[in-house]
Amino acid sequence: MSNASHLLSRLSAWRVLPAIAGIYISQTVITALTTQALPSLLRDAGASLQVAGLTALLWIPWGIRFLWSPAVERWRLPAGRLERRSRTLVLAGQWLIAAVLLLLGVAALNGYLSLADHAGWILGGLLAAALVAATTDVASDGFTVEQLAAQQRGWGNVAQVGGSYVGAMIGAGGFLLVAGTLGWPQALLAAALAIVLLSVPMLLLREPPRDAALAVDHRPALLHALRRPEVRTGLLLMLLSSIGVRLTLGMFGPFLLDKGLSLEQLGWLFGSLHIGAGLSGAVLGGVLVRAVSGWRAVWIAVSLKACVLLALTLAAPTASLTVLMVLVGLMFAALGFVWVALYSALMGLTSPLQSGVDFTVFQSADALLAMAGGVAGGWLSQHLGYNVCFALAAASAVVAVFVVRHKAPALDAMATRQAAA
Hints:
The chain has 18 helices and no strands. It is an all-alpha fold. It folds into 2 domains: 220 residues, MFS general substrate transporter like domains (Growth Hormone, Chain: A, Up-down Bundle), CATH 1.20.1250.20; 200 residues, Growth Hormone, Chain: A. Helix 12 packs parallel to helix 17. The longest helix is centred in the C-terminal third of the chain and has 35 residues. The chain is globular and about 60 Å long. It is found in: Membrane. GO terms for molecular function: transmembrane transporter activity.
């Protein structure tokens, strides 16, 4: 396919990037609200820890959405036709999520819902919102891959990862702040309004049609993705690069609490350091991808993560709380750095015939790894100590560096052939 036809099928980056940021901020508002803010609200209202813990189930749609991603992709890219329907799917999803939050908020304001007595109904409503968000993310991923040229994907991933950090700040800290000041029903209404406003950049776009060469009678399918060596290799390297993150991410808070930090101090630390360091790491990741593209950027980023994990492993037993806080902050920056480089490289391995399905396979695998890694990290820290958990994470990152560095030339050649096809 010629470069000219590629250009005709894409919007300009300055129009796409705000839309991408709006999509991923709004999606993370939902995940942060349900998995971070809601447990705190339920516990504060007197719910049991078991009920509060059930909010972890709201991750399930993100882990299994690959199962219905082909059906979403078939509707998004109708076979034999030039039209794309990403915009329609994304907007419908965002407005449906806002409607769910609005209904919950209005019901609570009118006395029909309370946190103490109707937690199941509230969890059910938010599970429906999470299901919609996970489903429309298939279209979001396809839109992002299609509308950004290879050299722009670094900044697109900055918008994705940075948007996720901003969404986490709004959905967790911002939601709790409004709930504590005005009440949780008002916080739900505010979240609904925020999601509607975040849909405006996408609403203002007009998605261009596909290239005629791609409007073939292709039926998006999981088997098509898994048969491709690019997807299989990308899955392996993505999981290897992420396992250290997933083992340790849920343990940083308990680790600092056990080292003497108060709950209030931890809240401020995560609300400021987490967001600031993560956004800084994401921007630096964008710079790295612009300077060193493809999988070479991934192994450089994972090398940085391995160094921070090794430093944290060595410092954990005896270092001061200040040093440990700095290392945790560096870890958050390294995570933003890694995710931008990794997502950009994975986008290069997706098929233009079903980019939404292929990229969803990668992200669903990471979500399932997050659930399994969180459980494993908790078990390791409880029974063998934080130091063993951090050491295993560091060892996995070192292994990932060598494997990704070895595979990088072949993967970058695959991505180049994909772009030229």
